[in-house]
Amino acid sequence: MVEAIAFYTLAALILGLAILVITARSAVHSALFLVVDFFFVAVMYVSLGAEFVAVIQILVYAGGIVVLYLFVVMLVSLKREPEQHADTRRLKFQGMLLAGVVLLELVGIGAYAAARDSAPVVARVAVDIPVQGGNTEQLGWVLYTDYLIPFELASILLLVAMVGAIVLAKRSLD
Amino acid sequence: MIDTIVTPLLKIAILLNAVLVAVTFLVLMERKVIAWTQSRLGPMRVGPHGILQALADPIKLILKEDITPAKADKWVFTLAPIMSLVPALVVFAVIPFGADPLYYVSDINVGLLFIISMTSIGVYGIILGGWASNSKYPLLASLRASAQLVSYEIAVTMTLVSMIVTAGSLSLVEIVEAQREAGVWFGFIQPVALGLIFIGGLAETNRVPFDLPEAETELTGGFHTEYSGMRFSLFFLAEYANIIVISAIVVIMFFGGWMRPFPNVEVLSFLDLIPSWIWFVMKIFVFLYVFIWIRATFPRYRYDQLMGLGWKVLMPIAIGNLVVTAIVKVLL
What we know:
Strand content of chain B: under 5%
CATH superfamily of one domain in chain A: NADH-ubiquinone/plastoquinone oxidoreductase chain 6, subunit NuoJ
Largest sheet of chain B: none
Oligomer: heterodimer
CATH topology of one domain in chain A: Four Helix Bundle (Hemerythrin (Met), subunit A)
Number of helices of chain A: 7
CATH class of one domain in chain A: Mainly Alpha
Shape of chain A: globular
Structural class of chain B: mainly alpha
Structural class of chain A: mainly alpha
Helix content of chain A: over 70%
Number of helices of chain B: 12
Order of helices and strands of chain A: HHHHHHH
């Protein structure tokens, strides 16, 4: 009962803040709402017993990525009024179309999950390894055994992105 | 009821007050030590040897007029000092002052990561304060600060990972206990990591020689140029609280936390007469003194030197240290 109340309160806060992120007039305000939103997502992770993921969520997203967003936002001029689009009807139509596609996707994911009706991966793993001092050990264990290849692929992807960014920046300097 | 609500709240209240009082006296200590370094006397008028200056300063700051610039973004301008101070104080929740659960608010199993993530939130105060002031010097300072903090954070976090590998835990209590089991302070096992974290800590707290975000000779004060009164002092409280946090981390990770020297030697057990939290506070004070000492003696880095040091020197050393630590850990 308490868990359900906590979950729905958190979910409502997360979604409400997400709406504020996209409706805020100032880009800096948007970024701030995003930070607070990430915090509530971290609280959600804590309520699910995933302390490690929660702390990493704050460290990487709230503490790292949004700082870089803010860095960019501060460098671009924000004094200009939002542009008046010539054809607002077409823009609205495109927006509706996109929203429809996303909704369809969400419904599809939900239906697929309901049809498959399998236990979540974390629950399956938790049986094998003794729980000692939270789930950080379990996470590390699973990441470097069962999910080693996806993990390494993700690191290579990040490395490629990093090299690409440096190459792009260098070329414009020379 | 008493165990879950009253005791933690009481502990939090005591801890917060202790930290804030310690900060006011830390400011006095800084002024005194710098004065002595420069053959001056420092504050002498308020109380014997200026000891009551620590009380006079906060009263002065509270009574001062609080000005918000007309062109500032009011909400963000108000929020920035708060976002600066709160993470600095929240960190104390996981810092253990003794082995007994009485001496810490909570021992979460990701304690060290919690500290890292909270300090990474602290940068918002500086960035937003500089931006919301709508003034050119604070904006420049906040751009410098964000670049500096993000760069040094990587090296510090990498070094902390090698310490996690050494101790085998993320919990601060267990890291200290690991040093008792190892029979030696980790500062002697990992001197490179100690140096990296200390340098990184200086940079993260915007202290000399890395105080470019508040370089008064270049930026007329830095990110808090437009702030006055209590809001200005919130930034200062945050900065000094962060210095205490960095000193506490160094003591916990490298110098045995709350334990007396040589905790495994029976002959010295009379040292246990001094309670653990006093040992901890004494060790912290040594590092606070070193922080002030460095401020009194070092000149400021140039900006490109600062970034070069962070990316080209500290980060490769931190990664190399991590690799060596991991190899040694596997071999032993």
